[in-house]
Structures are given as structure tokens and as C-alpha cells.
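Board notes (copied after class):
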Amino acid sequence: MKVKDWFSDCARGAAMGLGMVPGVSAGTMGIIVNIYDKLITSVSNLKKDFVKSFLALLPIAIGVVGASILVLALVHKTFNLAPIPIISAFAGIIIGSMPIITKEIKGQKISAKPIFLMLIGFVVAAGIGLLSVVSKVFWNFDLEAYFIAGVWWVYLLTFIAGFIAAAACIIPGISGAMILFIFGLYNPILDMFSLSNPNSVFNNHSRIPSVLGLTLCLLLGIFFGVICASKSMKSLLDKHKTSTFNVVTGFVIGSLVSMFCNQELVFKPEGASNYVWYYSLEYTSPLMYLLSTLLFVLLILSFYFISKKALRPQY
């Protein structure tokens, strides 16, 4: 591979690294920068021709990892300062990216089967967020607390979430980071490496073993998710494309519910006995709501045009 091509693939991988923002699809970014087909082909051929495929994937992976670290640091910082505007931005990205998904089901007849499949996807995605709030408010089930404590099943959940997130990235229009967010793992994972968080690995050295274990579980989940999904998802999309995207459409719509209704937005103030929402005017000012609305509308429009650009070569 020429040096120019190597750096070009690295830059395109960096564009895919934007998929660390919940709502931004790494698959969509891959299509826009014309690296998606090369990525899928190289992953699929790893077993057949490991050296060639590995060398093809290396610059892409370097770009993805480098951009991901920068994006995650920025998102984490801004989320802690203004959670409602950031979530509104995430939701705007998701809605603006919908043409990528709805294109695949356009023109199908309205019948019980597609509606049922969409309903399944919607209930699963929305149910994750709603259940997380109910479990925290009524059962005191605080996922982040269990995450910090390093309870055994959190490792399994992290592996599963990483696997699903990686598999979801294979489908253009779906965001792997969004999967982590509605599972309630997005911020706990970022908090592990935050310099300002007292429970991070840098400030609480007793967490080093659990953080290493959780990171390993996440990486293994992502690795196996990519390997398995690159083949099985391709086969699924080839044979049952419309049905798959019916479920995906419902899932994406349901994820909007989980974006605005999840454990991240419910907390118990110091000294209080009841949980409160960040939506309260005591914690989110009218100015923040105005900013949230502006970001929501702006990112719907921006990602709508980005999505249309991604679809343009396919016509």
C-alpha cells in the first residue's frame, strides 16, 4: 500500500471514529468517505488472507481509535456540563439519519408483519431505558454503582453490550455508541478513565483490576461482534433485508425514548431521599432548554443532508 493511500485510509477511519457519538453511525460515515466496502471485505477475509486483510485494516483501525479517544473525551466533558442539550443533540442526529434506514423499507405494503417487526424493535429499545429508570427509582438498582463495585454480571453485560454495539455498526444508520448509551454503560465506561472522576482508575487505584477486566470484556465483545456480524449480518441483509430494517427502524425510534428516559437522567441529590430528573428547572435552566431545541433542530437538518449524501451514489 502506498504511503498516500495509507494516510488516506487512516483519515477515513478517523471519520468513522465519529461513531463514538451516540446517534452517529460509523457505517454511515464509512459510506460517505468511501471506506465501508473495503472494511467489510477485509474483515470478512481475515481468515482467508490474514496478513493482507490485517494490513488493510490497520490504518483504518488507527484512525478509528485516535478519533474515538478525542470524541469520547469531548462528549464526556460536555455531557457532565449540560446533559439535556447533549442528549437533544444525540436525538437530533438519530432523527436526521433516519433516511439511511427508511430507504430500505420504502415502498413496502403496510401489513401486520412489518408493523409487528417494528413494534418488536421499538419495545426492546424503549423498554431498556424505561426499565432502567423504574429499577433505579423503585428498586434502587443503580447500574453505575454496580459498575464501580465490579459485580460479576457487569462484566457479562459489558461484553454483550460491546458485541451488540459492534454488530450494530455493520448496519448503516445504526450507532454503536447509541447501543452503549441506552444500555446505561456509555458514561460509566467513560468515567473509568476520567481524570476528574473520583472513581476513575487514575484517582482510585483499587479499581485497576476491575477496570482492566471491564475494558477487556468490552474489547472482546467488540472484536467478536465485528467478526460475527460482518458475515452473519451480511447474510441476513442479503436474505431478509426488508424484515431486518423493519426491526431496525423500530429499534431506532425506540432508542429516542431511551435517550430521554434512562438512569443517566435520574439522580438523588445529596441529603435527599427521593430521586429527581435533570429536566427539573432547578437543574436545567430555560436557557439550556432553548439551547437543547436549537441543537435538536440544527442536527436533524445537518444529518438529514449528510444521510442524503450517503445515499446519493446508490441511486
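Comment from the instructor: The radius of gyration is 20 Å. The first helix runs from residue 3 to 16.
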